[in-house]
């Protein structure tokens, strides 16, 4: 199946998944529990993950999947020649609380490179797509990242881990951004933060996340003209497109400066009077 055909399939699956998510929210027909004692998951996450897996298996039997709920074994990242990377509901807490920043994220990775990405936001009526080397779109219209070169005027998004003991070191980064940039947004969906960078609503995004959170969104941002990368070197054996630690995605001209700012915060080199 050609990449364009795979993209069309992924869009169709994502929209069907979105319909299921909206129906569950409207009917309040879902249960909640904590995964690993701290991360919220609903039975809708599992049901949507099942739907996506069944649709992909029916059209592309035998192709491997990495998904948050049903196939979370990350070993496939370094072994699979063809891999679907799926987050059935990115923004589960938002979904459970009735907020609109909720997305279905589907990416296809071949030979370690993300070849297509779909991020569908059913409550916002937006479907973001990208094909490797061919551009990015929202609802079929081309999108382009911010071209700002002024860090002080940048609107920056980030997020925080569920583990509260992991948060204090990140406060130094947050303080640095608040001191040197226009402001910060924390919307609760990495996939949609990346899409907001892709269409210029946000100027930058940084965070450490799981592969399924960002695989589709980072391709969409890159194809829209954003610069993508990591604050620190990636380990060998894991494709950079699937390594979610310390990612930084931004308007091209501020990427280096913002990266320096965040690394200085990590090293506790910044001082505030």
Automatic annotation (TrEMBL):
It catalyses: a myo-inositol phosphate + H2O = myo-inositol + phosphate. CDD domains: IMPase. Signal peptide: none annotated. Belongs to the inositol monophosphatase superfamily. The keyword ATP-binding does not apply. This is Inositol-1-monophosphatase. Its EC number is 3.1.3.25. PROSITE patterns: IMP_1, IMP_2. The keyword Transmembrane helix does not apply. Its cofactor is Mg(2+). InterPro entries: IMPase, Inositol_monoP_metal-BS, Inositol_monophosphatase-like, Inositol_monophosphatase_CS. Pfam families: Inositol_P. Keywords: Hydrolase, Magnesium, Metal-binding, Transcription, Transcription antitermination, Transcription regulation. Gene3D superfamilies: 3.40.190.80, Fructose-1,6-Bisphosphatase, subunit A, domain 1 (3.30.540.10). It comes from Billgrantia aerodenitrificans.
